[in-house]
Amino acid sequence: MAANDRAREDQGAFARMKEIVVMSEITLSATPKGNGYQATITFPTGVAISSAETYPSIAEAITAAALKLLEMPERLTDLDGAADL
Asked: Which stretches in the chain have pLDDT values below 50?
């Protein structure tokens, strides 16, 4: 099989995989604020939820965002529903 034919075959397989795989991305971030870091959760829709409090380190802010996300299972369930559309 020629290299060009193989490349076209790989591109076709990749295109089919892209049609099947649906992934949602949730971003947990820490932004400098005052003397610490503010935790933020950003959903695929662009909606962002930020903490009112600040945390002394980036790790603590990210951990707080992750814990908050776990307290909102309905948001994760909504992502499952959106993937079915």
From this structure: none
